[in-house]
User: What shape does this take?
Amino acid sequence: MQIDLFQVDAFAEQVFTGNPAAVCPLDAWIADDLLQKIAQANNLSETAFFVPCGAKYELRWFTPSHEVDLCGHATLAVAHVLFTHLAYQQPQICFTTKSGELLVTKTSDGLTMDFPASMPKAVVAPDNLLLGLGATPKAVLAAFDYIIELEDEQGVSSVIPDLALWKTLDLRGVVVTARGTDVDFVSRCFFPGLNVDEDPVTGSAHCELAPYWSQKLTKDNLKAKQLSPRTGLVECQLSGERVLLTGKTVDYMRGRITL
Assistant: This one.
């Protein structure tokens, strides 16, 4: 068996920035344990697999250790592969996923994903969350991740978390955020429970960050920057209970897996 493999930098305008994702087109689903082994061998934060289903595509995402319910940057990478390499002709792609139907549209500004918004709510911080932070939070909230707001961008940049403590938490991960200096807000995202210590650029986290900052800043269109070493930019637009995330993509590598 041979499977095409694309590696794409998402939320990036040049290689070695943004978030790398592996993309594997399939004609039909193969065994789940094989999907997981491929993701483990790729050793990227996410490997995306997709299968045509009528006019739509079934889409699944795997970290090196787990299947996940939602992944933004790998969805962007899959859309890039379809538009750029697989001759997809329509301006919009519909993916069916564990998080429902997701739409990606090709625009003059890049690729725009239509994702469900999730508004974080204030929570009592677990002890290990605060112990692992090593800083004083301005606010602690939760959606599908814990959200920690800090005083400023410098505070986000300087956080050195205790990932062993954060690995014990009950939610997917921890997102540290603050108001930005040259953008509306900044963030860093940590997922030690998924064996992804710090994710370079996390589209799905902006499904919870964008509603939060939209409410705080009273604006629906926001510019966001993730402050990982690779860094990346995400344009966010709130639309009712949905959030539109726009980013650019760059090819890094193309190959073939032989099994």
